[in-house]
DNA sequence: GACTCCCGCCAAAGC
DNA sequence: GCTTTGGCGGGAGTC
């Protein structure tokens, strides 16, 4: 007791006796967050806390007694922590003497009364959400524990979670400072980014998939393999996410960070922030957290421990009203989950750079983010930010394009007013978007849809599309300068509810077309700036050479017939952030430039080559989108179209460019059969199909009659039309315009509908209260491309001799999220 | 019986 | 060498 007394009282008597480490950082923390804060001095110890009192072995006893009886408690209070151990003991004896065992137990507060959530409520009630700097915002753990009548251990649980959100920070031993919610939004933004970079969305999907496989396909060996791959992909352990000025320096944070409640809490929050809907089951969260430790050690006890901790965290987060408990129901029954009820987190345009203590977090990402932001300013300097990412409708996109065009065209003077490079960028971006829409028109029209282009145009009110006929017409239309650039037809996928607008660009020299992704992954509108917008030409030759291709996975995917599991491997690979990032980085920095130059020489950009510098800039502008080579529409492909479609879709100059390839891989039937339903999530453009729209997806099965199995050949135009119409909301999900009724066989009967079932399970889970009605068209998995790393959007395809492509690793994707129709 | 999560041991880190 | 911090898992309360 003597030593304890000296130790506990000395720091309070000696001002500025805080540890050096703290002294070095804490003032920064204070000045950063609370500029008016007093110098960091350890305040004198409150008089009422007498030396021998704090948290000796008798303190528990005292607390026990205090909690046991109001009388005892009041007496305890009257004595003002007299710390008379003898008295405490006497009281204890007295209590026990006067109360029988049962009574004594009954006098104890119930378990609920002692819950961490309630305790956290009490704790939070002590401090304002938004404390002023003038207030005394210090937290003395001893005091708090004392006043809340709990052992300090419990306060640590609360404080650790609050620390993870930067609502408190540690100043010194036993001393914290309360920040309230001032930093919450920044923290959440940072966490969301890190969560995206860690591809938590994909991890969640993979966990779900694995759950399904465990349930329906107990192939232990294969699952183990999957698990191993999962582990190998999860070596990238993430550590505590810090905000500038709030860095942790304490060794404890670093030494125990792996399993720290802080880090766990942050990861848990990240899962919510990257999920759509923002519901995370405990099981999934625990598995992901375990996965980041060591999955091979996964056993029940570890899992249980993780669940315990998650409950601890969840209780605190619930008290903060950031989450609330829900239950999700799936095939295996009801599972506990939590739903995010905190503020929605939008990307921070300012992108104040957050920092991580992690050494494994790939720096290129943050760098690219920074450059993206800079690019954003350059691209549309005069416009405020617009965010269409969450908008499900194409209409606004079109309007936005129109606005952009007006802005560009109605400039009172020549584009010189705006810098040439900026103008060029605008035009360039606009061109892409126009191409998207143009080709969409073509798709719809050529599919024989009753809706006339005019109707479409009305529907897409304000559309900037002037080329409302076929793409060939559009191509021939001498429209300056964007139409002039549009000398070749473009295959297009409806951007609508997908977050991405892929555009197929022909590349005459290489003979390879390119898919340009407009990827509003950062929730910036493409009309202002799309940080996730990048050109990455990938000629066919390079595609097959992508390093990350795993031949085993490829073999599995392409040869294991009816094997759902095959689809699992690739999502696994999609998690290989560490593996892919370097590749992606290399691809982005090197290939992009190189290919971009090719584009300059050969393509529509040629006309703007005079401003080479700006063009280069514009190309490097798009750091995370992709130009993906697409299969050439061989005769077989063409044969798959009606004449009408041919006329409209395939251009005069480039008959190989079929809109069918926007969202469709002309796979051979055997390939599709092998890939199975998950293959419907596989397209060169990564178009995600809702389960209902999958009914139209058989177009994937074969668009090339030359393939080995032409019996399943579909009419690509029809399917694309259906897909397009569904996704732009012109026809409801499940309604298909049949070109060939045989095509619309429900895929649910397909033996490989595992993915579908899994999807449905997910849907249930995410929408526990929503009936299992077919998803709306916009229930297509959303933000599929949102992972900022982007490499998962690359589709390594290897060319077959018949002009089709074989999917290799990296082309299978598990949907990352779904639109929560009812909630959002 | 499963779900929750309190509780406190005890080891690492801090001082 | 003591205190602070916090990982961890037993096991009790609750559903």
UniProtKB/TrEMBL annotation:
Keyword Ribosomal protein: no
Organism, as annotated: Ardeotis kori
UniProt-annotated location(s): Nucleus
Protein known as: Transcription factor E2F8
A UniProt-annotated Pfam family: WHD_E2F_TDP
Similarity field: Belongs to the E2F/DP family.
E2F/DP family winged-helix DNA-binding domain: residues covered: 111-180, 256-342
Residue ranges with Polar residues bias: 742-763, 790-801
GO molecular function: DNA-binding transcription factor activity, RNA polymerase II-specific; RNA polymerase II cis-regulatory region sequence-specific DNA binding
Keyword set includes Repressor: yes
Alphabetical GO biological process terms: negative regulation of DNA-templated transcription; positive regulation of macromolecule metabolic process; positive regulation of nucleobase-containing compound metabolic process; sprouting angiogenesis
Residue ranges with Basic and acidic residues bias: 764-776
SUPFAM superfamilies named among the record's database cross-references: Winged helix' DNA-binding domain
Entry GO CC: RNA polymerase II transcription regulator complex
Keywords: Activator, Cell cycle, DNA-binding, Nucleus, Repressor, Transcription, Transcription regulation
Region (Disordered): 741-801
